[in-house]
Fold this sequence. Notes:
Elements: H1 2-10, H2 16-24, H3 48-51, E1 56-61, H4 81-88, H5 99-125, E2 128-134, H6 146-155, H7 171-184, H8 187-202, E3 232-234, H9 236-244, H10 246-253, H11 262-276, H12 282-292, H13 302-325, E4 329-340, E5 343-355, E6 358-365, H14 373-377, H15 380-390, E7 402-407, E8 416-421, H16 425-439
Parallel strand pairs: 1-2, 3-5, 6-7
Antiparallel strand pairs: 4-5, 5-6, 7-8
Helix pairs in contact: 7-8, 9-10, 9-15, 11-12, 12-13, 15-16
Amino acid sequence: MKAAALYVERMPSASVESFVDHLEGQDFAADSLGARARVRDAVAFCTPASAAGREWEVAVVAGLEEGVWPDTRLRDAVLGAQHLAEILAGRAEAVPLPAAARADSARVARRAVIDDETRSFAVAVSRARRRLVLTCVDGEEQRPSRYVAWASVAAAVEPQPAELDRRIADLRGAVAAVRVGALSARDATRAAHVETLARLARQGVAGADPGQWHGVPEWSSQSGMWHDGQPVRVSPSRLESLERCPLRWAVETVGGTAEAGEKQVLGTVIHEIAAALPHGTAPELARALDERWGEVGGTDTWPDRVLRERADSMIRRLGAYVASSAASAVEVEQPFAVEIDRAVVAGSADRVETRDGVTRIVDLKTGASAPSAAEAAHHAQLAMYQLAAAHGAFPGVDHADGAALVYVGGTSKGPTLREQPAIDVEATTARLAEAVEVMVAAEFEARQNDLCGHCPARRSCPAWATGRQVTDS
């Protein structure tokens, strides 16, 4: 009844059918009566505080990541409630705290928070009579809590990766497990797997019928992305991605890219300011950022202020580079498109700088990680810019004497410069031809590399277990 009342309050005009669909779609019952039901074979979800005084044969303590448990953030950092409590209890004087005392107070408060979190953990792990399971995530952005190491030492056990001990949580996982098992099973065991799939298919369970399996039907098409003889458009900025992993390049080419975030928006604004003020001084560039900051973010929240500090640093590094380049002529955002055999190399160069008759093509980068000098010497994007210049892509320029990547992101005081010497035109033309052969193919190779962790196509990539088809397992 309570669930129905809450649903009507939230959606007063909803039908009975939609309420039934809402209930059937819940993974766990939201009605508070569910927690009071006398059911023996059930799982209790509770916080450490609500678990105090209760015990189970098996207890699972989840979410043991550093920063989550223990959560070391101060609970009263804004209003100073803890200090107020100390004053009211007579343990502190009701006078303003100097800076040094505030720092000491914060350290004491943080120590108290950690102690509270540790006591909470002790309550949680002591709820198990027979078996205790601790779970955590160990990834690029999260790492196991210090409590995992403590428990490992105390119990004399080693943490085990979850991939080595998988469990089935739903029908979809059950179907996948049976299908994978059938591939490696033989004789009677294989027949048992097939019979299980058949029973599940008769019940209408998704994925059990072989007719629904990916990779079983005939290919819808085995044609490449370009017809024979059709010109192939090559973007210099995408060539690095193609050489690193052809599959990622193909997926992103047809729209499989990550949604633009604040970093991409900020990078776009920095590039546009650099194009508008090719000889701009640091104050001029800073004023331009002030005028356009509303397009990126605000100034009211802490994340906004952090983002603005990052933007100001980029503008300072950009100003330092412009001042040091001393180019007599600078062309910005130069669009080009040149035909080289079957390829059409097309794009836009951030800066084409000329000084004393020497021309250099510069690409501005707002990222923080710059390649090594050796990697920059072979950088695909810069090489294509130089190749395009050798084919008359830029007015008044018959060749480039080199190219450079200028990184205005990161934490260094000044910009990071990575230079590329003048290219061998014949060798670079052959490199372009190899890229075109990969682009016109009907299949694209998946190559593991150091950027796989940030790849938007990883969940569809056969080089990783998360993207591999069941028929390929």
